[in-house]
């Protein structure tokens, strides 16, 4: 599309200058305004309103009750449920995000080579992402069933002890993290691959001439050049990891996180408070705490990632 | 002021405005559609459109068409949720928002107590026409103190005992369903005693899960978790603790339980193995067993239930007060839950009727089940329904306390992560946390 012809100045130089300045300062904001207006309605308002609900006795059906100040927070923070859910969430998050990003990085590096049928491989890694989470959960439920699951049958055939996938707390975290990794590794690998392809090839040639082997090239060229993308991938998987809901929800028949809260994550705890106990006040308090937690993790992640990438890369 | 506005500025402002307008437009269009439909029906004077929300299988598909034919001017839309839990969540959301509920909403007996807390949200359905239509305990459960009737009963789940005749035979027990009924006796003690005899002579367990047994046992206690004034007494009621100890001693110490959590994938798979020999089974469970145990021969039903009668599950039709056509909706709900219609639903999907007259119907009493060795299931379940004499008191916290107790039993019976005492301690803590 051709650029619109410049409007000939009609007024004096001064008027044109003022409006021109107004144009250049205001119109960018107007361009992005639709997003922010929508965000205001669908994002910010619920966010603030949740904070408001958290300060009240609030029944799901009867609505707003008395103002109770911080009582909901006190109830949440002094109960066993919140802390157990928090440690489950962090455990599942670490078990999923860390291997996931490392594997994604590895897969992306492999896909960055000159492979035959390149598109086939690249689409292949995205396949698990396309499968609906419910279907994934169904498949993994059959794999990880305690008594008649495929994995335990294989273990028993090999003469090994079967793993108590549901009753053992750590084993259940591993199983859920596996489901998450299955779904998201390929997705992250493709994002990293896209960024890798944008790295100028002459950097590698230069490094090769300087005598860097493949490993050294990876750490000193690829990783630093991926820094912004890595930060994006790490932050999004942090947010996703801490909000994990579908997989633990569908890990057993009740979806409450186990009889002893073995795999009850914060979002499931929140759901139970709000939708089983109809206590929106307490559920909102958990939501606010979860929000703060994600912000804290995000900031720490951002600082760490920036630091690491800086040290390795040196320049940007 | 001069108005030599830059085209960029205009374009940007225009885009922003039109996007916002488009967003609003979309919403109001949707609203208009709904409005038009109503306006049209209101215009014709007698045109009414009703929505009926159900879950699982109520067997209403053909009945609703029949109703439309009988009542020209009435169109009925059937909304089916995939699971009962989703239906409950949707109904709770629309009650909370005071809009969005169907004209007729089906509810499960387990949710009745929580919805009873919001009597204003439901229309009072009591009327002389339907008095005495249902079994007393079915109606009592949805009747408030002031006589308000919150729902019309649809089906019930009278419980019998399903058993594997082939495993019985291997263990040297009688296999004929009448002899088995006699053998299993009257009380839980009898049932457990036969179980001990059985496991001594067999590799299989006696029943599938301690949690399932608990459901049968606790439903025979008048005041289990809450007293008549709804004070929580679950942790101090000696009856609860006694039953808890009894069921866990039988399940774990005597190894009568197969330790399978009901509805887990292990539980479903276990029907293909010789894991357990008996199961408490409400009428609707027959279909579940037949599905899971496809190809397995030997299942049968005995006309007996330990400790008296038992009911597990069943539903009601309610009319939310927020609806616009409460009168028409009530008429439809009353028609659907009449004995004649409920018998048709039974024929279609096997939902066992809760209406006194329907229990005497020849269609019902004559029905047999081929999978269960041609057992006269209609006759057996009708008798089991009559054996139910009371409905336990369930206060507003019943559902959550029972869930906590089921968790306690699962920790010992299925997970093996706690012993009965440490699991009880966690149960007490969980009940205290409910406040």
Give the SSE order of chain B as H and E letters: HEHEHEHHEHHHEHHHEHEEHHHHHH
Number of strands of chain B: 8
Helix fraction of chain A by DSSP (H/I, runs of at least 4): over 70%
Please name the CATH topology of the largest domain in chain B.
Answer: D-Maltodextrin-Binding Protein, domain 2
Low-confidence stretches of chain B: 1-7, 9-14, 16-44
Order of helices and strands of chain A, N to C? HEEHHHHHHHHHHHH
- Main beta sheet strand tally, sense and closure of chain B: 8 strands, mixed
Largest sheet of chain A: 2 strands, antiparallel
Structure explained in plain terms:
The complex is a heterodimer of chains A (316) and B (435). Chain A has helices at 13-53, 71-78, 80-111, 118-130, 133-143, 150-157, 169-197, 201-209, 214-225, 227-242, 246-249, 266-276, 280-313, and strands at residues 56-59, 63-67. The model of chain A has no long low-confidence stretch (mean pLDDT 87). The radius of gyration of chain A is 25 Å and the shape is flat. Chain A has a two-stranded antiparallel ribbon with strand order 1-2. In chain A, α3 (80-111) packs parallel to α7. With 316 residues, chain A is mainly alpha-helical. Chain A folds into two domains: 15-53, no CATH class; 75-313, Orthogonal Bundle (MetI-like fold). With 435 residues, chain B is of the alpha/beta class. Chain B folds into two domains: 49-156 and 314-364, 3-Layer(aba) Sandwich (D-Maltodextrin-Binding Protein, domain 2); 157-309 and 379-434, D-Maltodextrin-Binding Protein, domain 2. In chain B, 48% of the residues lie in helices and 13% in strands. In chain B, α9 (210-218) runs antiparallel to α10 and α17 (398-415) packs antiparallel against α18 (420-434). The N and C termini of chain B lie far apart (66 Å). Classes of the chains: A mainly alpha (316), B alpha/beta (435). Chains A and B meet through α1 of A and α1, α3, α11, α17 and α18 of B.
